[in-house]
Amino acid sequence: MLAEKTSVIVSERRVKCHIFEPSKRQLWTVVGMGKEHWLAPELDYCSCEGFYYGKLKGKKSCYHLDSVKIAQSQHEIEYIEFSDEEYLDFVKSLLEEI
What is the pTM of this model? Predict the structure, then answer.
């Protein structure tokens, strides 16, 4: 079941890397079931509830984080460019969904 979820996310290119220019700042998101989740793959963090409750139970990851790692290894990431001026509004909208 978990492998199927990650496979669908990767194959549908729902792993997104938002790049802000000219600073080259990056924000990662995964479009999940009903909402978008913010991730920091380098910190092993995801904003989904499953990640939070999984951590309480000793899990190290969630299927969104696993999807990012698979998408990175398979080069199946959608890159979206923004200007640095859009960064603050983007982060605000992302935080509103959390």
Answer: 0.87
